[in-house]
Design a protein that fits this description.
The chain is α+β, with helices and mostly antiparallel strands. It folds into two domains: 134 residues, PDZ domain (Pdz3 Domain), CATH 2.30.42.10; 209 residues, Beta Barrel (Thrombin, subunit H).
């Protein structure tokens, strides 16, 4: 048995607390909602009308036709919050972009566009604004769905494309509201794929699309389109020392939105399969452990997937020593170096899937089959 000192235990506990703190708010707020893994909402993938096959159209013609067909479905979102704080009393507003995803008035945007908002309004151009309500939020992917109370004749649904078949160099178009200039079109190419970016809660968003199409403050939540007028990404971040576009922007892939949005519409949140453990990153610790990478289990929660499978956390022996628990090093043969890897791999699965969790236990590697069970409450869990 691999034994560790009390000082090392405290270090592990301290590190684990910081590792878990970023997800406390999300689970405390949404943990009691209906825990269903899938939704019934359908996202349109119909070809937009009025766009000539890009292979036979000039670049200028394509730009004009995509903008004409798609821009009516891109909205200007105003979020308002109120504060009664002695030092910061008053009203605070923010703006961003979004786009219509169905005939019921659901609009997809970034979570950070509506974060903390107590009032939302949506404009389709001009001075007319319609009230909107929050439907669902997923801070982990920086996506959110709101619903606008507007006549159906102003709702232009923007279809989704396939972000899994993109190639570097492919033309893209972005429509949004940078600096308050409504429905601005910018064009560029895909500069890179599979870029790891982080949401505001520090959760890693896998597979982001990098583009040189100009993206600025206010573009957040707007669509990144292919030359056929289909959404391939949701513009979310820029890399810029000065705060403006320098040709390095990032979009959340449409494939993630397709997986997340139906759950947001149905349940108001995304409930992901979890092991039910209190984890810590081996790599972050300045102590000698039997493996250099992996996710250690500090504690296994009762009635969880990990508990049912017999995974082990730290244990105290009768003589007062503490025995190191399991260290997760792989799942289904895919290496787990840290908590980001654990989250990414589990996010591919649904409830009741059985995964082969490879752990380092008693100085050897052991594969443990784990059925991913729904958890009704799950603060601080992975």
């Amino acid at each position: 048995m691999y034994r560790i000192s009390a000082r090392q235990i405290l270090l592990i506990a301290f590190t684990s607390a910081f590792f878990a703190a970023g997800v406390v708010f999300f689970f405390e707020r949404y943990g009691g909602r209906l825990l269903e893994p899938s939704g019934s909402a359908a996202l349109s993938e119909n070809a937009p009308a009025g766009i000539t096959n890009p292979s036979v159209a000039t670049d200028e013609q394509n730009n004009i036709e995509v903008y004409k067909a798609i821009s009516p479905g891109v909205v200007f979102i105003t979020s308002t919050s109120f504060s009664n704080d002695f030092w910061d009393a008053g009203e605070r507003s923010g703006t961003g972009s979004g786009f219509v995803i169905d005939a019921q008035g659901h609009i997809l945007t970034n979570y950070h566009v509506i974060e903390g908002a107590q009032r939302l309004s949506v404009s389709f151009g001009g001075d007319k604004a319609y009230p909107a309500t929050r439907v669902g939020e997923d801070p982990d992917t920086d996506l959110a769905v709101i619903k606008v109370n507007a006549p159906r004749d102003v709702l232009t649904v923007i279809p989704f494309g396939d972000s899994d078949t993109l190639v570097v160099g492919q033309k893209v178009l972005a429509i949004g509201n940078p600096f308050g200039f409504t429905r601005t079109l910018t064009t560029g190419v895909i500069s890179g794929l599979q870029r790891p970016i982080r949401a505001r809660n520090s959760r890693q968003i896998e597979g982001a699309i990098q583009t040189d199409a100009s993206i600025n403050p206010g573009n957040s939540g707007g669509p990144l389109l292919d030359s056929g007028g289909r959404v391939i990404g949701i513009n979310s971040q820029i890399l810029s020392p000065a705060g403006g576009s320098v040709g390095v922007g990032f979009a959340v892939p449409a494939s993630i939105a397709k997986r997340v949005v139906p759950q947001l519409i149905k349940n108001g949140a995304v409930v992901r399969p979890k092991l039910g453990i209190y984890p810590f990153n081996i790599r972050n610790l300045q102590i000698r452990l039997p493996v250099s990478d992996g996710v250690g289990i500090y504690q296994v929660y009762p009635n969880s997937s990990a508990s049912a499978a017999g995974l082990r956390g730290l244990e105290q022996t009768p003589d007062g020593n503490v025995v190191l628990g399991d260290i997760i090093v792989a799942i289904d043969g895919e290496k787990v170096n840290n908590g980001d890897d654990l989250f990414r791999i589990l996010d591919k699965h649904q409830f009741n899937d059985v995964v082969q969790v490879e752990v380092f236990r008693d100085n050897r590697r052991v594969k443990v089959p784990v059925r991913l069970l729904p958890e009704r409450r799950g603060a601080l869990r992975r």
